Amino acid sequence: MKAILIAGAFGLLGTLLGTRLAIRVLIKKGYGQLIRDDGPTSHHTKRGTPTMGGLVIIVSVVVAYAAAKLATGVAPSASALLILFLFCGLGIIGFLDDYIKISKQRSLGLRSKAKMIGQIVIGLIFALLAIGWEDDNGRTPITHAVSFTRDLDGWELPTVVLVIWVLLMIAGASNGVNLTDGLDGLATGASVMVFGAFVLINIWQSNQNCSYYPGPKCYEVRDPLDLAVVGAALTGACFGFLWWNASPAKIFMGDTGSLSLGGAMAGFALMTRTELLLVVIGGLFVAITASVILQVGFFKLTGGRRIFRMAPLQHHFELLGWDEITIVVRFWIVSGLCVAVGLGIFYGEWVTGV
Questions:
Q1: What is the DSSP code string of 66-133?
Q2: Domain locations along the chain
Q3: Are 250 and 244 in contact (CB under 8 A)?
Q4: Measured distance CA(138)–CA(115) in Å, rounded
Q5: How confident is the model at residue 182 (pLDDT cuts 50, 70, 90)?
Q6: CA 72 to CA 194: how far, in whole Å?
Q7: What mean pLDDT comes out for the span 93-107?
């Protein structure tokens, strides 16, 4: 628990103090957000707001985790190192995307093909290491089974299919957070709740781990307590960043932050054996992603008709006349309810054994 508290505190202070410095540096260099002309007109006032704030989140999380390890004298675990690799790797792809937008003064950064290739390479390295890095008991960070609140019996996947499943989860989660990051503080606030939920899940799995407390309800999860340390660092870092990212935002996380945070969510779901439960816990991100898929699909099938006034979903409500802060707070409430339901399902399964 000491490591969890240290990681959370350092993550919070890192972004709370570091983001202020980053804002000054980014403004001085002229690294401001570009706004698409086809978006809501109210967003044009945000043009020039510093972006790439995700760099502060990434640095703060890595430093917070390192500080927790140094303070406790415990070596890093394979699971924690892998999730940090995924987190930082996708952050690099997001940074390249943001930097190209700023340097070339265009609203589109990396080509979609290049971004996809980058996500696949990072995801492939993560998947291969996660299914092959065994501990002394032969356990790996990721198993071949699909999971809900734990591995599902009879849902074992062949290695090739498992790798594809991991890539789909990483791409879906990272792009889901990316699509949600369209209003001040929306994605950051929702991320605080999701990572906070994973901290609780990891602590519970550590207290009921089969390595220490064998029994019919124990969890076969590797390194749950160390994953909780990473989760605490992420929760604290997002909380601190929200101070500056809340409306009116002084800085945006950019793709640097959204891709990395989404990748971390997928990594947590895979390693905590809660892959399908992520659909519930991250329900807001799922709904917003689904709105884009439905909009595009319906547009193509009907020859130009739309379901929503604009996708992603948050912009539909903007065009209905809702204030931005109203949308953000209400979407936070939805996210909080999704997290509460997800945690309830997780705990309920342990209690009932069903």
A1: HHHHHHHTPPPPHHHHHHHHHHHHHHHHHHHHHHHHHHTT-S--S-HHHHHHHHHHHHHHHHHHHTT-
A2: 2-352
A3: yes
A4: 35
A5: confident
A6: 26
A7: 81
